[in-house]
Amino acid sequence: MEEWKSLVKAEFCIEGKSIDVDAITELLGLKPNESFNRNGSNVSFPISKKIGRWEIATKYEISSNSHKQLLKLIRKLSSKKKELKQIKKKWKCDFVFSLVIEIYDSQCPAVYLEEKDIEFFHEIAAFYDVDLYYMGEYEEKCLKK
What we know:
The chain has helices at 21-28, 67-77, 81-91, 115-123, and strands spanning 7-16, 34-36, 52-57, 61-62, 94-104, 126-136. The chain is α+β, with helices and mostly antiparallel strands. The longest helix is centred in the middle third of the chain and has 11 residues, at 67-77.
């Protein structure tokens, strides 16, 4: 059997015009991978933004099952429902769970949600999306992300 090569990353973002990323970091007790306030900028994208963003994410990992990466974020956040609801109410923001999948050699990993995932997303009023990118043939350099 051929070795699996496709990469998966899971992200959880809080986005909104009036969010305060420092207050969100303190309230959740989690350090974001990326954050910026509206009209602010960050190192990776130094142009002023129309909305603020606070994000935690997994690293890209070789995976045949994208649910494994998603579960890492759900486990981090499931004990923080109360805080997430406070954030949503205070800043009228959006929550988005995303899977980013880079498909190599036509090997698409499994993509699914379990009932408890859907219940959690519903409880905190989160969106869910999947971004699929067909990358062609696998190259060793893709693991350097």
